[in-house]
Structures are given as structure tokens and as C-alpha cells.
Write a structure and sequence with these properties.
mainly alpha
């Protein structure tokens, strides 16, 4: 298999197979990010498809030279589409992820569901940008550098912001 820079170069020249390989590499991550933000599978799939379509149309302008990553490029476009969607749908809040079932004992499952509910409630009280930062950092496991490219804030400011967001989450959950 080609390495990512070669896939990007081929896709920039119009190679649909190379772009398909990029799509396959990042589809699940982008879908998960969209689902966490939109809490609706069909809407998440629509945003993912629109994201990849926009990337395909603009991949010619993408450059690795300035320290950009295709991952950050994808997340930034998905994030902008989610923001647009949220503006159209003012009641957007993070929803329970029922499909993530558990095989643990019933009591442990109840405790886990209770913890998920507390977390979901706390996340829903955060500003959209703060919620997206938490999702990117802790659900998508992105680095500070990658998140700063997606959210477009300096890395140092991002670190401070995450610290403040976590303190706020602890207050909201009641762990402080």
C-alpha cells in the first residue's frame, strides 16, 4: 500500500483509487466525530459524505508543506459542516451512545450507564467549541497540534483551554 503522502499526491492528480484509500483510512474517525456531535446516525453519515466530497473538490489546494495533515483538513471541514448544521438545528446536544453496549454484569452496566449519563449531561452544558475540543482530544485521541489546526487556535492556548474545560466538567459532574 502507498504511504499517505503518495496517496495525497495521486489524489491531487485526480486518482480516484488513491482518494478512495484516503476515504477508507479516515471514514470511521470522521463518522465517529460527526456522530458524537450530531447524535444522529443519518445526519452524521450525510456530514461525512459532504466532508469527503468537499475534500475531493479542494484536495488540489491542500499542502503538506505548511505542517498540515490530511486528518486535520478533514476534521476542520467536518467541524465547519457540523457548525452549519447546528445553526440550522438549535437543539443540538450530545446524545447517549446506546449502541456502545456492554457485556458486563447488570449492576456494572447500570453504574456505567449512570456515569455516561452524567458525562453526557455535563458535555451538553459546554459551549459547542469546548465540547468539540473534548471530543477531539479524548474520544478521537488527537494531539494538541492536530486539534489546534482543526479548531484554529494556538497550541498553548488550547492546552490552557482544555485544563479549564476539564475543571468545568469536574464541577458539572460533581467530582470537585
Amino acid at each position: 500500500m502507498d504511504d499517505l503522502p503518495n496517496l495525497i499526491a495521486k489524489a491531487q492528480k485526480g486518482d480516484k483509487d488513491a482518494y478512495g484509500a484516503i476515504y477508507n483510512l479516515y471514514y470511521k474517525q470522521i463518522y465517529r466525530y460527526c456522530f458524537f456531535n450530531l447524535r444522529d446516525s443519518a445526519q452524521a453519515q450525510d456530514i461525512v459524505q459532504e466532508t469527503f466530497l468537499k475534500v475531493w473538490k479542494s484536495i488540489g489546494s491542500f499542502s503538506l508543506d505548511n505542517g498540515g495533515t490530511i486528518q486535520a483538513f478533514l476534521y476542520r471541514i467536518a467541524r465547519n459542516l457540523i457548525i452549519d448544521q447546528s445553526r440550522r438545528r438549535k437543539d443540538a446536544k450530545l446524545e447517549d451512545f446506546e449502541h456502545l453496549g456492554t457485556n458486563d454484569h447488570v449492576e456494572e452496566g447500570v453504574d456505567r450507564d449512570s456515569e455516561k449519563e452524567k458525562l453526557r449531561q455535563a458535555l451538553s452544558q459546554l459551549a459547542d467549541k469546548d465540547r468539540q475540543i473534548v471530543i477531539l482530544r479524548y474520544f478521537e485521541e488527537m494531539s494538541f497540534a492536530e486539534i489546534s489546526k482543526v479548531i484554529k487556535i494556538r497550541e498553548g492556548a488550547l492546552r490552557v483551554r482544555i485544563h479549564r474545560i476539564l475543571d468545568k466538567l469536574k464541577d458539572l459532574i460533581g467530582e470537585k
